[in-house]
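Morning, I've got a small favour to ask if you have a moment. I've dropped the whole record in just underneath, so have a look.
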Amino acid sequence: MKYWFARNSYKKAPIHVVNYEEMILDKLPKFSTRELYLSEEFRVLIRSTERPTEQTRIEYLSLFSHSHFFIPEIFKDLKKVVVLDDDVVVQRDLSFLWKLDMGDKVNGAVEFCGVRLGQMRNLLGKTKYDPKSCAWMSGVNVINLDNWRRHKVTENYLLLLKQVKKKDEVSLREAAFSLSLLSFQNLIYPLDGRSTLSGLGYDYGIDPEVAQSSAALHYDGNMKPWLELGILDYKNYWRRFLTREDRFMDECNVNP
């Protein structure tokens, strides 16, 4: 990562590459490496109980993993961060996110009302929640760390984590689904949907004009643009940012 940023210019932006895993293990030794992951993606199958004959609907939700909940602990001097997933392509200036007045909210995220919490009651346990509340997406998120600390989001997350009975890797990764949604109850600041367009890793029906006008594109789903099975119509948005002449690209499993 350090070599990559040293070889590529980003308009004189200061770049600081850190080993996040090493920092967490150093400052929070009670947590093991198995609890540290990137954003988690979940495939949600929704079947209507009122219309059982209707076809099951499949949606992808990309949510925070356990690692995200340590950001305020690691970067104690910061008041705000913008978090980008590694399958996001930035097409426009995102500096406007830095200027948002989020009030008392913690997590600026694009809401996804195609899935509501009440539809996932069998996954969310007995913790109280608003069944009409929309799910939200990771990808591009604005985090107000001052509000995070004031609302004790990490402490509440750890209390919910204690309720997870199994602590093996699979169970912990599955638990990220409910823990992410419940930890940010009433703390989501809805971002304009035009700021980030999701679904480019599974949805064949995205309007090209919408994709071109979006500030950022999120390739959530299993058809990532660098894979051979990536959706061909959406690869161009990612491909135009490739630096193919860089020798490091030869070592990547890229199918442009």
The chain has one domain: 20-224.
